[in-house]
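Data availability (excerpt). The following record was deposited with the supplementary files.
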Amino acid sequence: MVIVQITVSAVKKSGGYVMEGKNIRRCSWVDSASECYHDNEWGKPSHDDDYLFEMLLLESFQAGLSWVIILKKREGFRRAFDGFDYKKIAEYTDNDIERLVHNDDIIKSRGKIAAAVQNAKVFMEIQKEFGSFSDYLWSFVDGQPIRDASSGYVNRTPLSDKISKDLKKRGMKYMGSTTTLAYLLAVGIYNAHEPYCFLSPECTDKY
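Predicted structure:
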């Protein structure tokens, strides 16, 4: 058990609140561009289908790129993709894809843009089958997040292999096991905060 006495304050910055304090320690991958994301979102269990789709779209575009690049373009993606409204995205036509290919605010990959449209359709099909995408996703872990700091250091896990295989079987694109693992880490299926991070379960007396 790591016991750390921390006196912190929440400072509002673009993208959310960043915790500041003399003894604050974060996961080793965090830099100034990802602080808000780390402190407010990463690894927090989500059951919100809107958020789950947003992260699925962003993670699919991250494939092969730095996550910081995606974070910096996140608001551009939001504007370009109708606020991540999967119902609207599922209706995109070839003309919409062509328009997005020329949008400098996003990653201009025709394949990934087309995949976003396809994935929105599959997302809705999963909702229809399971009641929600959240119910589908969390069913793989019986509704309980997995505490495993090591999952943040590998490219894939048996769980990411299993979910990736099922997503691809259903027709999703750009959701290989590595991308799926990043997604599971993002939405809190895995809690992979490093033991000394102030957000880890092992780090007590955080506030």
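Summary of structural features: The longest helix spans residues 110-130.
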